[in-house]
Write a structure and sequence with these properties.
Number of domains of chain B: 1
Number of helices of chain B: 11
Strand content of chain B: under 5%
CATH superfamily of chain A: P-loop containing nucleotide triphosphate hydrolases
Strand order of the largest sheet of chain A: 5-4-1-2-10-9-3-8-7-6
Shape of chain B: globular
Mean pLDDT of chain B: 86
Order of helices and strands of chain B: HHEEHHHHHHHHH
Largest sheet of chain A: 10 strands, mixed
CATH topology of chain B: MetI-like fold
Strand content of chain A: 15-25%
CATH superfamily of chain B: MetI-like
Structural class of chain B: mainly alpha
CATH class of chain A: Alpha Beta
Structural class of chain A: alpha/beta
Largest sheet of chain B: 2 strands, antiparallel
Number of strands of chain B: 2
Number of helices of chain A: 11
Distance between the termini of chain A: 35 Å
Helix content of chain A: 25-40%
Radius of gyration of chain B: 22 Å
Number of domains of chain A: 1
Order of helices and strands of chain A: HEEEHEEHEHHHHEHEHEEHH
Largest interface: A-B, 24 and 16 residues
CATH class of chain B: Mainly Alpha
Oligomer: heterodimer
Low-confidence stretches of chain B: none
Mean pLDDT of chain A: 86
Radius of gyration of chain A: 19 Å
CATH topology of chain A: Rossmann fold
Chain lengths: ~270, ~280
């Protein structure tokens, strides 16, 4: 279970929807002295990492270094897995581990797209509304509006607009991943965590997701875990490199794409 | 040598299957041969006459269906709640969760007459309800509870973790995840568990013979206290004791055939649901 971090300045529980000017300009998420343990095994250590607002932060690193675990810490999905977390993460300047934090609201504000598309065995429309209609009350008209706008934002509206009542499992894998993105967008998150979202997709679907990321960052802050250096170079504004140091995943380098991937960058120096 | 072992193994499997089919098939053929002559519309739609020597079994059918329906209505919400408690709210690897599971596996092996004795002591004697259809329903529910709860637990365990993680990642609360993901996916477990347990409960005599049923003189109950019902298993039990009387033969075998048909129908209804469940869990 996650241990609440010692956080003397953040006693208020809920995440405020209205953002102060100071919060609007700073990083959307700040990670400080974070460590994740599975039993006694130290899985991941991140001393300090800021996630910029309305930009794409790419996280790269070898398999098993803890990139996906880091994403799951940010919306406290680690609570479901029994991993122990120490240190702190601040979302809109409030600790996500503060006592009384509304974890469900936190997860709705920090949406997630998984490596494999997770489509519920129901219709396309019900999939889009799966979270949204349970998080806020919506009339039938508002539901239809929500479905259309989320599907448009995920660039799949034209492909599915005539078969919203058809089973979502009939879609191709690439379409399913964009449907999952639409479902996440329908809950109106501030941040979208993407855990290797194109690893199961063909090049065309990958291109579609990548071009979506460009559009989405105007309204959302994005954290993208990727294995592909080329994708990181194409999509990310900033990069963080996590490597395995003495058996523990550790943030070893962060900065602009050139700082990390350039000829004199830390990846080259490794 | 390997081929020989393969042949021997196949022969052993085939032999075992043949023995089972012969026993079960023989049983059904004998009961059908002896019981079919008794089956008629009047047998199924009229009440018993002459202490079972003539007449029909309508009130026995009604009583049996009333008991198993009552048992199902009591079992379903309890089983669902207990399975949810074990799967969702308790730590699955924790002591309480393991203890609960062990408790149900143990209860599954308790002879049904023990539940009958418990019901007799508590409801018939202590609460002074006398023999009552409701006591029978409660006692049968107790005997069904472990089977149904374990079936639902197994179904819940087969729900892909990705659905639970994806719904939690959307910001749904635990209760919303239960309603939107866990319950809809567990309904097949409830249906199959219930039908299998009901099929078994429908044939039970021991738990209801001193809590809910009498041999003659009851129709549809109009209250709870001192309101027993007629049931097929108990009817067969009593007629079997008088089986030396030739007049009882057709009535006995006809009743047995109807009971087997009822149990078989419930078991067959469970089959397609089990297949759906199997396909989904291996998707």
């Amino acid at each position: 279970m996650t241990e609440p971090a010692l956080d003397t300045d953040h006693t208020t529980a809920s995440m405020s929807q209205t953002e102060s000017p100071h919060i609007m300009s700073g990083p959307v998420l700040r990670i400080r002295d974070l460590s994740v343990y599975a039993g006694k095994k130290h899985l991941l250590r991140v001393e300090s990492l800021d996630i910029p607002r309305h930009e794409v932060l790419g996280i790269i690193g070898p398999s098993g270094s803890g990139k996906s675990t880091l994403l799951r810490v940010l919306n406290r999905l680690t609570d479901l897995t029994g991993l122990k977390v120490t240190g702190d993460v601040f979302f809109q300047e409030k600790s996500i581990f503060a006592r009384g934090t509304d974890v469900d609201h936190l997860r709705a504000s920090i949406g997630m797209l998984f490596q494999q598309p997770v489509v519920f065995p129901t219709t396309i429309m019900e999939n889009v509304l799966f979270g949204a209609k349970r998080l806020r009350s919506m009339s039938r008209g508002e539901q239809l509006e929500c479905v259309e706008s989320a599907l448009r934002e995920a660039a799949i509206w034209e492909e599915v607009k005539d078969r919203l009542k058809r089973p979502a499992l009939q879609l191709s894998v690439g379409q399913q991943q964009r449907l999952c993105l639409a479902r996440t967008l329908a809950t109106q998150p501030n941040v979208i965590l993407m855990d290797e979202p194109t690893s199961a997709l063909d090049p065309r679907s990958t291109e579609a997701i990548e071009s979506l990321v460009f559009k989405l960052k105007k309204r959302h802050s994005i954290v993208l875990v990727t294995h592909q250096i080329a994708q990181a170079r194409r999509v990310a504004d900033k990069l963080a490199l996590i490597d395995v140091v003495q058996g523990t995943g550790e943030l070893v380098c962060q900065g602009d794409v050139d700082t990390v991937l350039g000829q004199a960058g830390c990846l080259a120096a490794e | 040598m390997r081929k020989l072992i393969n042949y021997l193994l196949a022969a052993a499997a085939l032999g075992s299957m043949s023995v089972v089919i012969l026993i079960l098939g023989g049983l059904i053929i004998v009961i059908a041969q002896k019981g079919l002559p008794a089956i008629s519309w009047s047998f199924l739609s009229s009440g018993m006459k002459q202490a079972g020597a003539s007449g029909g079994i309508i009130w026995h059918l009604v009583g049996t269906l009333l008991l198993i329906t009552t048992a199902w209505l009591i079992t379903s919400p309890l089983s669902l709640s207990l399975a949810l408690l074990q799967q969702v709210w308790l730590d699955k690897k924790g002591r309480w969760s393991q203890a609960l599971r062990l408790f149900f596996y143990t209860c599954n092996g308790v002879p049904s007459i023990v539940f009958g004795l418990f019901g007799f002591m508590i409801f018939v004697q202590y609460f002074n309800w006398g023999k009552s259809w409701l006591v029978g329903g409660i006692v049968l529910a107790m005997s069904m509870l472990p089977t149904v709860t374990l079936a639902i637990m197994e179904r819940m365990e087969a729900i892909p973790a990705k659905y639970l993680e994806a719904s939690a990642a959307l910001g749904l609360s635990k209760t919303q995840v239960v309603w939107s993901v866990i319950l809809p996916q567990s309904l097949t477990g409830l249906a199959t568990g219930s039908l299998l347990a009901l099929a078994r409960a429908a044939g039970e005599t021991a738990p209801i013979m001193f809590t809910a049923t009498i041999f003659a003189g009851a129709t549809f109950p109009d209250g709870i206290r001192e309101n027993p019902v007629l049931t097929l298993p108990y009817h067969i039990f009593i007629l079997a004791q008088d089986s030396f009387d030739p007049a009882m033969g057709p009535q006995l075998w006809g009743s047995a055939l109807v009971l087997i048909a009822l149990v078989a129908t419930l078991s067959l209804l469970a089959l397609p649901l089990r297949l759906i469940m199997h396909e989904e869990s291996h998707d």
